Amino acid sequence: MDIIANYGTTLVLVAALFGFLMAWGIGANDVANAMGTSVGTKSLTIRQAIIIAMIFEFAGAYLAGGEVTATIRNGIIDSNAFVDSPDLLVLGMIASLLAAGAWLILASYFGWPVSTTHSIIGAIVGFAVVSIGPEAVQWSKFGGIVGSWIITPAISGVIAYFMFISVQKLIFNTDDPLNNAKRYVPFYMFLTALVICLVTIKKGLTHVGLHLSDGEGILLSIAISIAVAFAGWIYIRGQKYNPQDDSKMHFANVEKVFGILMVITACAMAFAHGSNDVANAIGPLSAVASIVASGGEISSQAAIAWWILPLGGIGIVIGLATMGEKVMATVGTGITHLTPSRGFAAQLATAATVVIASGTGLPISTTQTLVGAVMGVGLARGIAALNLGVLRNIVVSWIITLPAGAILAIAIFYVLQACFS
Question: I need a labelling partner for 305 at 20 to 30 A (CA). Which of 15, 263, 389, 421 fits?
Answer without folding.
Answer: 421
